[in-house]
Structures are given as C-alpha cells and as structure tokens.
Amino acid sequence: MKSSTQSLFVAVAVLANTLVLTSGLHAAEWSIQVAGNAFRTAPGPGGGGLQRDGTISWGDPGTVFSVYFHVDRPAELKLSINARTKAGRSTLATSVGEKRFSTVIEGTKLADRKIGQVRVAKAGYVRVDFKGLKRTADVYAAIGSLRVSSDTAGLVVDYVKTNKGSMFYWGRRGPSVHLRYEVPRGRKLRYAYTEITVPSGQDPIGSFFMANGFGEGYFGFQVNGPKERRVLFSVWSPFKTNNPRDIPKDQRITALASGPKVHVGKFGNEGSGGQSYLVYPWKAGKCYRFLTEVKPDGRGNTVYTSWFGDKAADEWRLIASFRRPKTNTDLRGFHSFLESFSPVHGYIGRRALYGNVWVRDVEGQWHECTRARFSVDPTGGGRHRLDFAGGARDGRFYLRNCGFFNETGRPGATFMRTSTANGQPKIKFVEAAGQR
Fold first, then answer.
1. Is residue 22 in some structural domain?
2. In 3-state terms, what secondary structure has residue 188?
3. Would you say 244 and 268 are in contact if contact means Cβ atoms under 8 Å apart?
4. N or C, which end of the chain is more exposed by having fewer CB within 10 Å?
5. Residues contacting 327, CB < 8 A, separation 6+
6. Mean pLDDT of each 10-residue bin along the chain, 436 residues long
C-alpha cells in the first residue's frame, strides 16, 4: 500500500509539473518600442512628440499616437504600457478597434501600467491609439513601450524589434518594393521606357515613384511637400562614398545638358553623384512617361539622358544629361521601385501602376517587358514591416507599400502582365541630347 501511494503521489506531481511547463510554453510577452513603431496620426502626421530618449510625450488634447504590430492568427491579447508622468497625475485613453480603456498614470519613473485585454479576430495588423484625457502637468505622459502578452499557442508577433542598423528610422519609413524587369538576352540595350499612373489618394508626402532604374542611377517622381512635387534623375559616381566632396575630380559626374527650370547639383548619403530635378505639379490619376538613354561615348565614359512627359498631352521634357567617367556600359539592371522617404508619413499607404514598359536596343528595335521579379528591402525582408505587395493586373504591374494593410508580398515572385503591344512608344529619336 505504501509503495502504491508513493507511486500515485509521484505520478500526480509529474502531471502537475507537465501542465505548468506546458502552460509556460504558451505564455509569451513582447515589448514594442514606440521609437520604431509609433506614429502621430492626429491631427495629422508630424515629428512632434518623439523624444530623443525613445519615448513619446505630448500635451495637446487633440494629438493621437498610434502603435502598430502584426499577429499571425486570432488571439487574446493583454496590453500594458511602460510609462511615466513628468509630474502629477494623468489619464490616458487607449483604443483598439471598438474597445476603449482608461489608464491612470502617476510617478516620474517608467513603470508598467495595465491597459486591458482585447480579442483580435483575425491575422493582420493591430492598431493601438493613445490620447490624453486629463493631466496636472504640461504633458500627459511619456511612453517608452507597449507591452503585449498572450496565452494564444504559437502566436507570432511582428514589429520593428531592434534599432540595429538604425532600423527604427528605416522601419518608420516603411518597406521599399521593387520590380526587376525581364529584358531580351543577348541584346545591347540603349533606352528604357516606363509609364506610371499613381491612383488618386495614393500619393502621400514622402513618396518616391521610381520609373527607370538602371545599374548606375534612377529616374522617377516624388512628393516632397504639400505644395511641391519633383521629377528626379540621378547618376551615381563610380567612386563609392556618401560624401560628394570626397569624389576625385576624374570620377565626378559631369552635367552635359539640362531642360528649362531643371536644377542640377550633387547628392550624397546613399552613395554620391550627380542629381537633377524639375519642380513639376504632376497629379495622381494621370499617366506620365519616362525615357532614359544609356550610351557609351567611345572614350571610356557613358552618357545618361532622361526625358519626362504627360502622356495625354504628348509632352516630352528634357530633364538632364550626365556623363559618368570610367564607365563603358549599355543599359543594364532595368527596374522600378516604390519607397517612402519620410518616417513621419510611413504609416500612410501608397500605390503605383507601372504600365507599358519597354526597352529599345542599339539597333532600334523595341522589346516589350511583360515579366518582372518582385523584391523588398531589409525592412520587409527582416519582417520589421509586412505591409508590402506587388503584382500585375489589367496590363500593368503594381507596387504597394506602407499603410499597415493586411497583405504581404512574396519576395522573389515573378509577375506577368498582359501585352500592350499596340502601345509601343512612338518617339522621334535624334543623336544629340535634347528635347524629343
């Protein structure tokens, strides 16, 4: 009897320990730093509120900060914030979908403050909004992180987890997406031609819709501010540096020509070289066309020339012509991309349609590009952000990024658009760089 009792006791103890361990495996917690995952979403995008110590802090009752994270399945989530007050006592309102919570914060040291529990019904992005209700000091609170915990088995939570490589900055900008066009093999290519239409409402500040990318530069248009838009054409120097002043004289990009009102200068920070831009009021909903010529000069250099125009108006404008030294190449690496270059606008979605894409070889033959390979930068590739996509529809490729939408593209996928052979460009080519 004694032996049987002891055996039963041991069996119960083992079972209890197994249950505890199993339960512990299911429980998980994530600390989502606001420095890389929060945006001011009301009264509109802006940089105010994000502090140098990585917290968000504000005193305007109309301000809303939003934190985003992604879950891979339906889940029960418990939320809290690591926060403090500057002085006195504050009350914050937290919203997750239709659920509302009120949290009192006291104390000048960062500490965890409970918010409440929410049920997420499906996989995708979760948005958590913070708004001030009451305060006795000049700011409502300083928030360092949103804490998420869950007993949902196997739950995966994605967000910008680290600032390694300045990822908080890049993560707030959002993922950049690219199309690498399939071109005919064994042909020397001279021209790249692309048409872009940006759908209405898909053109927030900080957007760069790049049309003609090549091995040594890029050409497209941007939204630089509420009242300024640009057509941008840049060519990198063969000398690798982020400071254009470091480039030796014999490796500098030389401007050979430029169109009316086009600014020509230098650029740095992401490589260095020659840059040109035209302030131009392009509009969403309209189709614009881009043409780039890549031509060796026979003396060990290559000349790059780009033109831009409103397709409906049958317009062509010379942007610029640059000579790149120590370079002897035809058109190579033809691609397009879409990026956000403004961290404060990185929560707003953008989309572009890339249609009627062609290349022209050195013998004057046009070749239609109907296949493209999709890729994403390390922000998306490292799962810091999952709001990126691309595809082909109605005879055009498309790229989409930012906005925390619940679709994630597959890097390496190949897209095929239907042919637009009747749209072959009809351009009067001349030898000298100038208007087309």
1. no
2. coil
3. yes
4. N
5. 216, 238, 296, 300, 301, 302
6. 42 41 62 98 89 94 97 98 95 97 95 96 98 95 97 97 97 98 97 98 98 97 97 91 80 93 79 88 98 96 98 96 96 98 97 98 97 98 98 97 97 97 89 46
Q: Is residue 231 part of a domain?
A: yes
How many angstroms separate the CA atoms of 400 and 413, rounded? Answer: 15
362: CATH = 2.60.120
In this structure, are 209 and 146 located in the same domain? no
Residue type present at position 17: N
Relative to beta strand 254-258, strand 317-324 is antiparallel
Q: How many domains does the chain have?
A: 2
Q: Are residues 118 and 266 in the same domain?
A: no
Phi, psi dihedrals of residue 167, rounded to the nearest 5°: -70, -25
Query: What is the span of the domain harbouring residue 55?
Result: 28-159
Burial (0-12, 13-18, 19+ Cβ within 10 Å), 286? middle
Amino acid at 63: T
- Amino acid letter, residue 170: W
Question: Is position 257 within any domain?
Answer: yes
Owner of token pair 């939408």: 405
CA distance 421 to 337: 23
Residues 143 and 257 in one domain: no
- Residue 196 CB: number of other CB atoms within 10 A? 27
Burial class (CB in 10 A: 0-12, 13-18, 19+), 366: middle
Q: Which of 136, 159, 182 is the last residue of a domain?
A: 159
Q: 89 is written with which tokens? A: 């006592």
- Per the rule left: phi > 0, alpha: psi between -120 and 50, beta: everything else, 382 is alpha
How far apart, in whole angstroms, are the C-alpha atoms of residue 173 and residue 395? 29
Instruction: State how far the Cα of 22 lies from the Cα of 16, in Å rounded to an integer.
Output: 10
pTM confidence score: 0.90
Residue finishing a domain among 159, 180, 199: 159
